[in-house]
Structures are given as structure tokens and as C-alpha cells.
Design goal:
The complex is a heterodimer. Chain A is mostly helical. Helices cover about 75% and strands about 0% of the residues of chain A. Chain A has a single domain, classed as MetI-like fold, CATH 1.10.3720.10. Chain A contains 13 helices and no strands. Chain A is globular. Chain B is α+β, with helices and mostly antiparallel strands. Chain B has two domains: about 220 residues, Rossmann fold; about 120 residues, OB fold (Dihydrolipoamide Acetyltransferase, E2P). Helix content of chain B is about 20%, strand content about 35%. Chain B contains eight helices and 21 strands. A six-stranded mixed β-sheet of chain B has the order 6-7-8-3-9-10, with helices on both faces. The radius of gyration of chain B is 24 Å and the shape is elongated. The C terminus of chain B is likely disordered. Classes of the chains: A mainly alpha, B alpha+beta. Chains A and B meet through helix 8 and helix 9 of A and loops of B.
Chain lengths: ~280, ~375
């Protein structure tokens, strides 16, 4: 460890640790993806390359009704969740930003609560809520959407507020000064300036929704409300085929693509420093 | 003529802290009016109240005779050039300038024409399609100016608009801004902490301190005839001496500084008791040691600072005070040697000596802070 004594020395040892860690964390994912392309039924022995678990006529992602149903339901939940959580989160962020004085600090902290609450606690709580307090809603798709919106909302608020704070009140004042009524201050100035943050927030909400397991699982009712993550969990210990790897790969690709898009949009319009904050949030 | 602003007992406090303390000011139509003061003196808060961004705690803002204190900013016929310009980053230069025209009910042709004229006015004719981020600081400042002027406001408010620019550009823009104001005849209300800028550009200056107006008047008046210690000290360089006014001497006032008596003909000559006397460095004459006559004071040169156009000579006088005297650099060797350690005599002419009643300003240690 000569770099400890020699400040000009290159810290090779640190580089080795970093590379090893990255390899270790990526390895299982890579293995799972590799076996999605296995020719045989094994998920541990390589038997040649093929697309049969994606497009084959039996048992593949595109032909097995259970896998397909799970994929469709996952995407449905994600789209509806984003459609609700994004506008709601943006409104909340705008409201909180303007709310000065008594109580605003408490509410700010409360907004972060869903991000730090253990998900299992939230899942159980929501389950009881829908069974006992709102039995007319019950379990199923509606409950799953409400559950997911509850915590994806926090991500939207945090991301949009971050951008709002860095924009500051000045552009709104300039718009007002030039004759724009409050509606136009929002529509002609603030929303265009917030656009990258809103896109990023929607993408993060989308990815979080797709990845979610605990809350979605607790609030599901029957096979029709099974998502990809639930399916993976249920069958991984039963009689799995590489089709499971294939559907996991599809989910992973969708998530990664969405997050990359969000990162690029945000970086393009809001500058690198904030994008780094966003990247940290996504992890 | 339109564009008169009168502030009447205008007060603003933030959570009980008074920022603007019941000021009364008249800003005549078509004039270049400057609010000058150190940071935290309330000048920007006052400007923001005129713009409508802050609601006064009490008092009136009369714009051409009607009180606009409760009118929201988008309905006021005043426009602002912000310190940071606040150009909309998602619009190009033309988009920024055209922003407010939407609310004036103009035809499309008229709008295009006005944008073109405004950009020509600030010499940015070819820049219509640039983004704000592609412009230099000086150009951004011009766009901000065009964006406000295109609406033909009755009053233009400028919040330290030259603060972010380098010294040379500042000087040029000071002259340009003043010329523009004279050409357009619009009332400009300008906020700055830079006393030189204020003196250069303004028709009228209000010197502010701790939420109050210390003195308002023409630049020459506030410089030559400061009424308070604060004004004397904040504008230009002043020599201030503690003194005792002992009585009248013709039209002048006799003041005792230490062991010596001086005649002072300016300021509160009727005051008696503890006072301050003030004299500008350019009014002090440096004479050979032991020159006889009234209003003279022996001293020793501590150092001489070369300023290009002049020397600033620091003289330690009998009694321990340090006085600054300016000697113009006229190319000839000075009559009196100005090297450190030289004994000299200072002549403080009665016409240059101003009596300031002490204790009248709320502080006796001068301005607490002054941003450069």
C-alpha cells in the first residue's frame, strides 16, 4: 500500500477492490441473462444459444399465457401508476414549495416517510386498510395502483422539488413582471423549466412500479393480478425453466431503458450536477 | 408627463424585522432616480415593493396619483431588469423580448416590429435566434433591458443591473444606460451600492441606510452638502474630525479641534457643543511646513498613494488623526515634498469645512458594512 505513504502513487489497490465489487454485483444478473438464451431447459448447464424462451412456440415469454399475463399486468400497473403519481406529485411539489411558515417543515419530512418506511410495514398496513377500512375497494388491481401511487409519489415530489429549488422564484417573478397572470407564470415559464425533472420523475416512478414486489404482492387478489416480480418469486423454487430468466431479462431491459432515458433527458436540460443526484436516487 | 412615483410612509417588515422603515420619496417623471446604500439598507426591498413582488406592511405606492400597493405585479405598468437578468432559458432572445407583448393585445405584425425595434435599441439586431446561454454577460443585460423596454413601461426598475459585469464594461454601460434613459424619457429607478455609479448616472439620488432615507437630492447636492455623517462617509472619501462648536464667527462657526480653532462655513453652522467637522480630500491644500494663517494645521506625511490622475496623501496631524488630501497630478513636480516623514502644513479652507451635528445619525461609528 505504497500509495498511503506516497501521495503521488496511483492507488491501484483501491481500483482492484472497485473492479472486484462491480464484477461481483453484476455477475448474478449477467448469469441470469445468459441462461435466458439457453437452448435446453436447464438454468445451470449451458446447452447452446437460442431465443426459444423468448419467442418459442411453447413455454416462452410470448406464448405462455401466465408469463404474458404477468408482463401485461406489470406494464398496466406501471402506466396507470405513472399517470396518477406524476401530475399529483408535481402539484404537491409546487404546493409545498410555496407553503412557507407553520407546519411546512413537518409536512416536508412526512413526504419522505414512504421512502424510508420498510416496505413490508407499508404492505401490511395497506393490506389491513383495504380489507378492514375500505372493503368496498378490496384487493386487486385498484388496490395495487393505490398502493404503488402511495410510495412512488414521494419519488416524484423529491425530484421535482429539487429542481424547483434550483430554479428559484426569479423566473416566476420575471414572468409576472412582464404581465403574465399566475396561470401563465406556471404554464409559460415554470412547467417548461420543470419539464426535464417531470420526465425524469415519471421514469423513476415507472421503474419503481415495475420493480415493486412487496406492496404489489400484498394487494393482489388472484392470478390475473400477478406481476412479473410475483411470478418470479412464486415459480423460482418450483419447476423453473429459462423462460423465467427471459421474463426477468425483459423486465430488466424495460427498467434500465426507462432510467437511462430519464437520466439523459435530465442531464441534457438540467445540467450534470443535478443528474448525479438523480442517479443516486434511482439506486 | 407619466411615470411619477411617490412613496408615502412605506414600511416593510419580515417576521418583525423592519427592512424599510416608513420612507417618503418622490421620484419625478422622466428622471434617472437612484437608491444608493450599503447591502441590507432596504433599497432592494423598496424596489421589489414598487415592482409588486413584496407587499408593503403599510404605506402607499403612488404611481401617477393612484395607489398600486395592493395591485399584483402583472397588472402594474412598471417593468424590472433583474440583477441576474432572469432571462428565460427555454426561449431564444426574440422569445424573451416578445414574452410580455402577448398581454398587450397587439397584431402579429406589430409584435414582430416591436421586438425588432427593441433589439435594435440595445444593439442586438442579429441576435434574435440565440439562446440566452450563448450570450455574454453584457449581451444578456441588454436582452433583459429590451425585454422590459419593449412593453413601454411608465417606470423601469433596475436592480443592480451592472453588478455582475467587469469594470470596463460597467463604465461603458453606465454611459449607455444614462443616454438611453434620456432618449426614452422613461423614469428609471436604479438600485446600487456603488456610489460612483450613482453619481455618474443619476438625476437624483436617495442615500439609504438601515431602512430609512438619509438624504435625497441631486448628485452634486448629496456629495457637496451631506446632511448626515452617514452620507458624508458613504459618498466619496471624507475626513471626519471630532470637534466642539464654540460660537459664531461672522457667517461662520468656530469649531475647536483639539487645541486649535477653525472657521467652518458649511453645514450646521448654528450647532453648538459636540459636532463633527468634515472636509473632502480634494479641498485640503498642502503647504510648506509652518505656513502661517488661520485654518492651518501642522502634520507629517505618512505615505503618498499614487492613483494615476492624482496622489492621495495621508497626513498624520497634531492630535493624532489621519487626514487624506488629494493632490492633482498636473505633470509638474509638487511645490511641497510629499514623501513619507515630511513635515507639512494643511490648509482647511472655511468653505470646505462642513459642520455635522453629532449624535443626529443613529450611529457614531459610520457605516457598519459596505460591499465593494
Amino acid at each position: 500500500m505504497s500509495w498511503l505513504r506516497n501521495p503521488w502513487g496511483r492507488p491501484r489497490w483501491l481500483a482492484v477492490v472497485t473492479v472486484l465489487y462491480i464484477l461481483w454485483s453484476v455477475l448474478p444478473v449477467v448469469l441470469a441473462i445468459v441462461f435466458a438464451f439457453n437452448k435446453g431447459r436447464s438454468r445451470t448447464t449451458w446447452q447452446g444459444f437460442s431465443f426459444r424462451w423468448f419467442t418459442g412456440s411453447t413455454g416462452s415469454v410470448f406464448h405462455d399465457p401466465a408469463l404474458q399475463g404477468a408482463l401485461k399486468h406489470t406494464l398496466l400497473l406501471a402506466v396507470v401508476c405513472v399517470a396518477i403519481a406524476t401530475p399529483l406529485g408535481v402539484s404537491l411539489a409546487l404546493g409545498l414549495q410555496r407553503w412557507r411558515g407553520r407546519g411546512s417543515g413537518t409536512v416536508n419530512t412526512l413526504m419522505l416517510l414512504p421512502l424510508v418506511t420498510p416496505e413490508i410495514v407499508m404492505g401490511v398496513a395497506l393490506l389491513l386498510l383495504f380489507l378492514r377500512v375500505f372493503p368496498e375497494i378490496g384487493l386487486g388491481t385498484t388496490a395495487q395502483v393505490i398502493g404503488q401511487v402511495t410510495f412512488t409519489l414521494s419519488y416524484v415530489v423529491v425530484i421535482v422539488r429539487g429542481r424547483l429549488t434550483s430554479i428559484g422564484p426569479e423566473y416566476e417573478e420575471a414572468a409576472a413582471d412582464l404581465g403574465a397572470p399566475p396561470r401563465d407564470q406556471l404554464g409559460r415559464v415554470l412547467l417548461p423549466l420543470l419539464a426535464p425533472a417531470i420526465v425524469a420523475a415519471a421514469a423513476v416512478a415507472f421503474a419503481v412500479s415495475i420493480d415493486d414486489f412487496v406492496v404489489t404482492q400484498y394487494l393482489s387478489s388472484d392470478a390475473s393480478t400477478t406481476t412479473v416480480s410475483m411470478l418470479l418469486y412464486a415459480t423460482a423454487r418450483g419447476a423453473p425453466t429459462p423462460a423465467l430468466n427471459a421474463i426477468a431479462t425483459v423486465a430488466l431491459v424495460i427498467t434500465l431503458a426507462t432510467l437511462s432515458l430519464a437520466f439523459l433527458v435530465y442531464k441534457r436540460f438540467a445540467g450534470g450536477k443535478e443528474a448525479a443526484t438523480l442517479a443516486a436516487l434511482e439506486v | 408627463m407619466q411615470g411619477e412615483i411617490r412613496l408615502e410612509e412605506l414600511t416593510k417588515s419580515f417576521d418583525g424585522v423592519v427592512a424599510v422603515d416608513g420612507i417618503d420619496l418622490r421620484m419625478p417623471p422622466g428622471e434617472f432616480f437612484t437608491m444608493l446604500g450599503p447591502s441590507g439598507c432596504g433599497k432592494t426591498t423598496t424596489l421589489r415593493m414598487i415592482a409588486g413582488f413584496e407587499r408593503p406592511t403599510s404605506g402607499r405606492i403612488m404611481l401617477d396619483g393612484s395607489d398600486v400597493a395592493r395591485v399584483p405585479p402583472h397588472k402594474r405598468s412598471v417593468n424590472t431588469v433583474f440583477q441576474s437578468y432572469a432571462l428565460f432559458p427555454h426561449l431564444d432572445v426574440a422569445g424573451n423580448v416578445a414574452f410580455g407583448l402577448k398581454y398587450l393585445k397587439l397584431t402579429k405584425e406589430e409584435r414582430t416590429r416591436r421586438v425588432g425595434e427593441a433589439l435594435e435599441l440595445v444593439n442586438l439586431g442579429g441576435f434574435a435566434r440565440r439562446k440566452a446561454s450563448q450570450l455574454s454577460g453584457g449581451q444578456q443585460q441588454r436582452v433583459a433591458l429590451a425585454r422590459a423596454l419593449v412593453l413601454r413601461p411608465r417606470v423601469l426598475l433596475l436592480d443592480e443591473p451592472l453588478g455582475a459585469l467587469d469594470a470596463r464594461l460597467r463604465k461603458n454601460l453606465q454611459v449607455e444606460l444614462k443616454a438611453l434613459q434620456a432618449e426614452l424619457g422613461i423614469t428609471f429607478v436604479f438600485v446600487t451600492h456603488d456610489q460612483e455609479e450613482a453619481l455618474t448616472m443619476s438625476d437624483r439620488i436617495a442615500v439609504m441606510n438601515e431602512g430609512s432615507v438619509e438624504q435625497a437630492g441631486a448628485p452634486r447636492e448629496v456629495y457637496e452638502e451631506p446632511r448626515t455623517l452617514f452620507v458624508a462617509d458613504f459618498l466619496g472619501v471624507s475626513n471626519l474630525l471630532a470637534a466642539e462648536a464654540v460660537g459664531a464667527d461672522g457667517d461662520a462657526c468656530s469649531v475647536r479641534v483639539g487645541e486649535r480653532t477653525f472657521r467652518a462655513r458649511q453645514g450646521s453652522t448654528e450647532a453648538r457643543g459636540d459636532v463633527k467637522v468634515m472636509i473632502r480630500p480634494e479641498r485640503i491644500a498642502i503647504e510648506p511646513y509652518a505656513t502661517s494663517g488661520d485654518n492651518r494645521l501642522p502634520g507629517m506625511v505618512e505615505r503618498s498613494v499614487f492613483l494615476g490622475g492624482s496622489h492621495e496623501v495621508h497626513v498624520r496631524v497634531l492630535g493624532g488623526e489621519l487626514l487624506k488630501a488629494t493632490v492633482a497630478n498636473d505633470g509638474k513636480p509638487p511645490a511641497v515634498a510629499l514623501e513619507g516623514g515630511e513635515a507639512v502644513s494643511l490648509y482647511l479652507p472655511p468653505d470646505g469645512l462642513r459642520v455635522l451635528a453629532a449624535g443626529e445619525p443613529r450611529r457614531d461609528d459610520g457605516p457598519a458594512e459596505r460591499t465593494p
